[in-house]
Design goal:
Structural class: mainly alpha
Radius of gyration: 24 Å
Distance between the termini: 15 Å
Shape: elongated
Strand content: under 5%
Helix content: over 70%
Order of helices and strands: HHHHHHHHH
Number of domains: 1
Number of helices: 9
Length: about 250
């Protein structure tokens, strides 16, 4: 599954409109950095716009992480490493890198849809900038809604004290995004608990055997680690974990 040309760029442009009301006209400012005196309110407004856009660009990686499958992937992979008990193996760079690669794999259909419906028409001057942003956010919202639980969505609607949305289109992004994050954390820890159980059973069995043999001062984790590694390798653990993670996303 290949990501088409400009696919990632289209996703990035769409993320810039996450918190922008659909009705509001949104334009990209022409950034020209100069040191001069602000003589008019318009000059002050332009400087403030530049500051806002620089802030958005700084937060863009965090928005990307929080609005994709990355949260669930990195949490489950980290819990799997912790359950094995092999210290920092695999290292954090490997866990994060694998989570990013799987994120691009899972999100590839969304990237391609953004590219086809928003970025390419905009690059060909077929639609306006605001129309491209509006179209680009639709695949993101569709993906997030499929992974968001109704309970979390209702929680943030109630805390925001807004009227109950009649359709999904009525749910604003500032409600959908935290609901999605909370749902992803819940799902990730549920999967992590299931992954943790077999390793916990091995730890309990090894500890019981050591206590029954009178070896109470021998660290159970040191004895249990080889058994956990053997079991994980024999069942092809990473294959099963990655397969379950990818299949857990509703498409």
């Amino acid at each position: 599954m290949n990501i088409k040309k400009y696919g990632i760029t289209g996703l990035f442009i769409s993320f810039l409109g996450l918190f922008t009301p659909v009705q509001a006209a949104m334009t990209f400012p022409n950034i020209n950095i100069e040191m001069q005196t602000l003589n008019t309110p318009q000059d002050f407004s332009n400087g403030l716009q530049i500051l806002i856009w620089l802030t958005i660009l700084t937060l863009a990686p965090s928005i990307f992480i929080m609005a994709t499958s990355f949260i669930r992937l990195v949490v489950v992979l980290s819990l799997t490493r912790q359950a094995i008990g092999a210290g920092n193996l695999p290292p954090n760079q490997v866990i994060t890198g694998l989570a990013l690669i799987l994120t691009f794999f899972i999100m590839a259909p969304v990237f391609n849809e953004i590219n086809d419906t928003a970025l390419q028409p905009y690059m060909k001057n077929q639609i306006t900038q605001q129309a491209a942003l509006d179209r680009g956010i639709i695949p993101i919202r569709k993906f997030m809604f499929k992974q968001t639980h109704e309970k979390e969505l209702a929680l943030f609607v109630r805390m925001a004290k807004i009227e109950k949305p009649k359709t999904k289109d009525d749910v604003p992004m500032y409600i959908l995004l935290p609901s999605f994050i909370l749902s992803e954390l819940k799902t990730a820890f549920t999967i992590g608990f299931v992954v943790y159980l077999p390793f916990l059973v091995i730890d309990i069995v090894v500890s019981s055997v050591l206590v029954s043999m009178g070896m109470m001062f021998l660290p159970p984790t040191m004895i249990a680690l080889p058994f956990k590694l053997i079991m994980f390798v024999m069942v092809d653990g990473w294959y099963l974990v990655v397969k379950s993670l990818v299949e857990s996303f509703v498409t």
